[in-house]
Design a protein that fits this description.
The chain is an alpha+beta fold and 328 residues long. The protein is 24% helix and 20% strand. Strands 1, 2, 3, 4, 5, 6, 7, 8, 9 and 10 form a ten-stranded antiparallel β-sheet that branches. Strand 4 and strand 5 form a beta hairpin. It is globular.
Length: 328
C-alpha cells in the first residue's frame, strides 16, 4: 500500500519529465533533437494561477474537466451577448483560445515563483502603468491615446501597427488567435517563424557573440546553443518595450527560452524573463506546445495595414467632438 501511495503522488509534470528522460526524442540526420514542424501553443490554462486555486499546483483530471467546461461556457455567453459588429474588435467567433488546459495539468503557465503569479512590478514600472491607465481612461484598446499617433497607438501597441504580433513575442504567449510557430532546423541555425505578423528569428548556433550593445532590434538579438537535448535561446538587445505583458518591458529585457521535445507530439517551451526595470525578480513560465497537422496560414494584419488610416481618422474625429463638447 505504501508503494502504491508513492506512485499516486507523482505529479503530472514529474511523470512527463520521467517519460521524456526515458524516451529518446526524434533526431535529425546530424543527431540533434528534431524540433521541426508547426507547433500550436493555444491553451485554456491561465497565465497566472487563479486565487481560488491558491497552492494547488496541478489540476486533477476532474478539476481540469470542470475548469475547461466553465471557461468554454463563458465564451459561449460572450458570443451570445456581444453584438455582431464591434467597433475596433472582433466578436467571439474569431477568437481561438483552444478547448483544453495543458496536458501537464499545471494550474498556471507561470511555474516560478511557486505561487504561479508574476512577481510585483518595480515602483517605477508600477507608476508608469498607472500613468498610462490615467492617460487612456475612456479610450478603447485600438485607438491612440488623445493627441498621440507616432509612438502611441493604444494598448494594442505594435500589433495595431502590424510591427509585432501580440502573441508572437519574443517571448511567445497564448492569446487570441494564430497561435502557431514553425520551427526549421539546420546544423548551424534554427528559424522560428510565427504565424502572427509572420515574424521570424534566424538564430545562430555556432557560438558567435551577441551584437554590440548599440545595435538593437524590435525582436532583440537571439543566440542559441544545445544543452543536452534542450535548445537554449538567449535574447538581448531589445530596441524598446514589446507587446509582451502589454508593453511593460524595457530595452533591458533578457530572455532565456528552452525548447525540449517532451514527446512525439509535444514541444515544451519554457521562458525565463528578466527585466530589472519592470519586475522585482526574474520569473519563468512554461507551455507544452502541441504539434499541428496544419501549415501556417496568412495573417494579413489590417489587410496590408490600410486599416491604420481609418483608425487614426476615427480617433481624430473623436478628439474633435470631445473638444467641441468641452467648449460649449
Amino acid at each position: 500500500m505504501l508503494v502504491c501511495g508513492l506512485f499516486l503522488t507523482v505529479t503530472p509534470a514529474a511523470a512527463q519529465a520521467r517519460r521524456a528522460a526515458e524516451a529518446d526524442p526524434p533526431r535529425t540526420a546530424w543527431g540533434a533533437p528534431d524540433l521541426n514542424g508547426v507547433w500550436d501553443f493555444r491553451t485554456l490554462t491561465p497565465f497566472e494561477r487563479p486565487s481560488e486555486l491558491a497552492e494547488q499546483e496541478f489540476f486533477t483530471d476532474e478539476d481540469a474537466s470542470a475548469f475547461e467546461a466553465a471557461r468554454l461556457a463563458e465564451f459561449a455567453v460572450r458570443d451570445d451577448q456581444e453584438p455582431a459588429d464591434i467597433v475596433g474588435n472582433y466578436n467571439q467567433f474569431w477568437f481561438d483560445p483552444g478547448n483544453k488546459v495543458s496536458e501537464t495539468r499545471q494550474t498556471s503557465l507561470v511555474v516560478d515563483p511557486p505561487d504561479g503569479r508574476v512577481p510585483p512590478l518595480t515602483p517605477a514600472a508600477a507608476a508608469q502603468e498607472q500613468a498610462a491607465l490615467r492617460a487612456r481612461e475612456g479610450v478603447d484598446r485600438h485607438s491612440p491615446t488623445y493627441g498621440g499617433f507616432v509612438d502611441d497607438l493604444g494598448s494594442g501597441l505594435f500589433a495595431v501597427r502590424c510591427i509585432l504580433g501580440f502573441n508572437s513575442g519574443p517571448p511567445m504567449t497564448p492569446a487570441g488567435y494564430n497561435q502557431n510557430v514553425q520551427v526549421t532546423q539546420t546544423e548551424d541555425y534554427v528559424v522560428l517563424l510565427n504565424e502572427m505578423v509572420h515574424s521570424s528569428r534566424v538564430i545562430p548556433l555556432d557560438g558567435r557573440p551577441h551584437l554590440p550593445e548599440g545595435v538593437r532590434q524590435w525582436m532583440g538579438d537571439s543566440r542559441g546553443r544545445w544543452e543536452g537535448d534542450t535548445l537554449v535561446v538567449e535574447t538581448t538587445n531589445f530596441l524598446r518595450e514589446t507587446s509582451f505583458r502589454d508593453g511593460l518591458t524595457t530595452s533591458a529585457l533578457q530572455l532565456t527560452e528552452r525548447f525540449t521535445r517532451a514527446s512525439e507530439g509535444t514541444l515544451q517551451y519554457e521562458v525565463t524573463v528578466e527585466d530589472p526595470n519592470a519586475w522585482a525578480q526574474p520569473w519563468t513560465y512554461r507551455i507544452p506546445m502541441v504539434q499541428s497537422e496544419f501549415p501556417l496560414f496568412e495573417y494579413a494584419c489590417h489587410e496590408g495595414n490600410y486599416g491604420l488610416y481609418n483608425i487614426l481618422a476615427g480617433a481624430r474625429q473623436q478628439e474633435a467632438a470631445a473638444e467641441a463638447a468641452a467648449s460649449r
